[in-house]
Amino acid sequence: MNLFTRPMKLLTAVVLEQTSEAVVKALLELGVLDFVHINKLDPQQMEKLSSRPSSINRANLEEMRKRVEALLRQGHLDIPTSEVLDVKKLEKPQLEEYKRILDVLTSDLLSLKDKQKESNQQLMGLEEMRRYITEGKGEYLDLRVGEITHGKSEDLGGKLAVYGGLLDRVPESAKFICLTLRRDVSQVDPLLEKFGWVESSDVDLQKKAISLIKERLDAEHQRALKSRTEVEQAVDAVVKQQQSQLFTIWSNLRLNELCDQIRSYFAYTRNTTLFSGWVPSDQADRVRDAIIQASEGQSVIEWTNATEVPRQDVPVAVASPKALKPFQNIVNNYSTPEYGTVNPTIFVMIAYLSMFGLMFADVGQGLVLLLVGLLGSHAYKKNPLKPDGMLSRNVTSLLVYLGLSSMVFGALFGSYFGLPLLPALWFNYEAAVAGHAEGALIHDVYGILGLTIKFGIIIIYTGLVLNWINLIRKRSYLTLLLDKNGLVGGLLFGIGLYMGFGFVGSGYRQFPQTSWVGPVVTVCLILLFARGFLSYYLSVRKGGAKHEPGKLILDVVMEWLVDVLEIFTGYMSNTLSFMRVAGLGIAHASLMESFKMLSSLVDGFGGIAIFILGNVLVIVLEGLSAGIQSLRLNYYEFFSRYFTGKGIAYKPVGLNSNTSEKR
């Protein structure tokens, strides 16, 4: 894992036009080049170049590919993945032939889909009637007993089946029982009238009609289930018969989509093709060799180091182990780090898990989170195309880490489903909350609050140090020295901590009487004030705009006041914000103590049920709250100290590209 974003190089290559298709295939197979549009090149170069309209319409390719995917889904077949793509099998897409094949398959499925629709509608009606009978909700049913005076009973029964209704002959009688849903009365009444339905006046028969037809209802339900299964199997068989051909069509469409996407970045002269793009430095040799081989050595390749290009124009590639993907996603959801800066993933992982563990420390409850995460991850791994549910892929992976963190801190605090089954390795959290943790380093709520404040100070200073490293790498030495998040800001924060801890240590009676504090704070404030003038001077030297003295002084004063306010209030609020870690941890321990007390008041199974229910509620509610608060503290207290989020993501075009870029 790289501690910083991956070093990048800008490739500019020229190949002969007759080899450009081979180069496209080679670059697609490598999948490491983040192309730059030709309109971003130097205007003088652009005058000599031209783009060419594509010979195929990428929108048509994508539309037809999605049609193939829809047919595969109808047959309950998995959509192909990038693993089936082979650039060597790329062919010119025969769209008309593909359309003919898909039309034929769609036509074959159409009659089966109509049967499937009818079967589903009938089955839903039968299931609904069975449920109403079982639940005793006769008011939702329309049950009739009568005779048919016109037409055949088979015809009437078939028409009623469309609505999920039933028509059954009464044994040894000319009468029939008609059962439908009451909401379908407006359609059923005209139908019965057409067949000359005459209601029976036999009260006894009407009373036992429901029991007479229930057996028929169960039989029809089983028949409808079997019918639907047979239709689904027929649909699956038709699609599966064409699976190989559909996969071939899908692969060729997808390959042509990606190749056309690459071509859209190309520029042309009469005989040559030019393209440009960003590559991670460690992949530069592979890309060069692939271009030389594909172009048969007839190519010109130039490399530009990222240091020669404005930082904001360089795409950012972050190399993190696959195991850390949940935390990489946390970073990505916030923003993309600036090129050349610290890769925050590992620091986010440590901070996030520490915060969560302090708020949700319990070995047993952590084990539940771990098992849920492992089972969920296994289910998604077993079915890669399964859509994300309430617990997405990323959440299930994150739960594994959160469960382990909770178990570690639970062992430190001696909590096992809220019970002190084993001695605490550090201190008993629940005893500290209750105020009777005798002999422990932390023995009451104030000790817990102090612990989380110190933890917050470590997090904030870690953010400041990371910011200083980033500024050194960017050679922003003025900002490093005189910014609110620079060395002066860090020094003032340290002085504030010194004064605060001294005040608490004196029993909240007086601040430390130290002679050096006043002069150091004064010098720091003067340096902060001078920063505005120094920044303006350096800007003018580089050709920046000049301002009137009055406007310059006003801008500097306003910026200085904001910075001072941020240092003296922002740092304090950021530090005290970490008390929410203690607050949620105390709430977690208090809730478990409450549920233990409630369960002790009820004997037998009732007490056990209360204890189990309490743990479930705590896992769901407290676990969610701890996860959200850990995320908030990372984003607003940690990231705000060093993370600029000004980068642009590295998006190479390759076989694993998720979507085709629209032109």
From TrEMBL:
Topology within the bilayer: Multi-pass membrane protein
Keywords tagged on the record: Coiled coil, Ion transport, Membrane, Transmembrane, Transmembrane helix, Transport
Membrane-crossing segments per the record: 346-377, 398-419, 445-466, 487-504, 516-540, 604-624
Cited InterPro entries: V-ATPase_116kDa_su (IPR002490)
Localization of this protein: Membrane
Coiled coil: 95-129
Keyword Coiled coil attached: yes
Family that this chain belongs to: Belongs to the V-ATPase 116 kDa subunit family.
Name of the protein in question: ATPase
